[in-house]
């Protein structure tokens, strides 16, 4: 959800030659939350850019997911890319994102982060002692 963090992740993925995964995920989010009248055009654009043979930003999804997606785009709707999006999400979650968290880029991002003062004092805010505790009935 953090725009700066997402931009840093995208920079990291570009260095790893897998930025198309995040771009595909974002395009699917745009489809899901986009204008109803443009659904068919957005589905077509996503297919051409990421899934079609010879696509410029091709993403690697398994054959079963591709079959379900190809069948679904025959009658486009805002959730037609959900299986493919989830496949790419899991790929990033298990592979790219853990590497990003170990990268110098991420460590630098953390070092420059602005941390609200109340979280600096205690690691676990829920463990704070109440100032005025009332006796139990």
From TrEMBL:
SMART domains: RGS (SM00315)
Domain of life: Eukaryota
One example of a Gene Ontology biological process annotation: negative regulation of signal transduction
Matches recorded under InterPro entries: RGS (IPR016137), RGS6/7/9/11 (IPR047016), RGS_sf (IPR036305), RGS_subdomain_2 (IPR044926)
Matches recorded under Pfam families: RGS
Recorded GO CC terms: cytoplasm; neuron projection; plasma membrane
UniProt domain RGS: residue ranges: 1-110
Keywords: Signal transduction inhibitor
Gene Ontology MF term list: GTPase activator activity
Protein name (database record): RGS11 protein
